[in-house]
Amino acid sequence: MSFLITWVWVLLAVTAFAAGLCLGGLLRQHRWATVLAPHTASHARNDRLVLACIELADQLTSEALRAQVHRALADVGVHAIAACGEPFSTLRHRAVDREPTDDPGRHGLVAAVVRPGYESGPEVLREAEVTVFDHTRTNEENRS
């Protein structure tokens, strides 16, 4: 019987120790969460502001005002995705139309930008909506 009581005490001690470690980890995590929360909230506000400026630039009819918004975005590291003539990339572009071409060398290249995309460093904030060149092989090309 004393052997069983000893094991119960050992089991309780181990359980209490493990619970203490878990509780301590949660408390440390909570402390760091409260320290980092203001930065995270500020970062989220900045992201929303940048996206609002991008949407505003889309709606502006004045080239001068659009250029001013683009300069402000560039000041915080946000740039329009240059797309015309680039190879189509699903990471940076969204195809909304295709443009037939007789030149097989242009197949898969961006023909035109319908709506500009934006990136901040390596992060794509919004994909560019583009028209992509499409070279469809003719029957003569398929035979050769």
What distinguishing features does this structure have?
single chain; 144 residues; alpha+beta; 3-stranded antiparallel sheet; 3-stranded mixed sheet; 53% helix; 22% strand; elongated; GrpE_head; GrpE protein; chaperone; GrpE
Per-chain topology:
Elements: H1 2-59, H2 63-75, E1 78-80, E2 93-100, E3 110-115, E4 118-120, E5 123-126, E6 128-134, H3 139-143
Parallel strand pairs: 2-6
Antiparallel strand pairs: 1-4, 3-6, 4-5
Describe the structure.
A three-stranded antiparallel beta sheet has the order 1-4-5. Strands 2-6-3 form a three-stranded mixed beta sheet, with no helix packed on it. It is α+β, with helices and mostly antiparallel strands. The radius of gyration is 29 Å and the shape is elongated. The termini are far apart. This is GrpE protein.
What's the helix count?
Answer: 3
Low-confidence stretches: 16-36
Order of helices and strands: HHEEEEEEH
Name the assembly state.
Answer: single chain
Which structural class do the helices and strands define? alpha+beta
Q: What portion of residues belong to β-strands?
A: 15-25%
Largest sheet: 3 strands, antiparallel
Cα shape: elongated
Termini distance? 92 Å
Helix content: 40-55%
Q: Care to count the β-strands?
A: 6
Q: Order of strands side by side in the largest beta sheet?
A: 1-4-5
Q: Cα-atom Rg, whole angstroms?
A: 29 Å
Mean pLDDT: 77
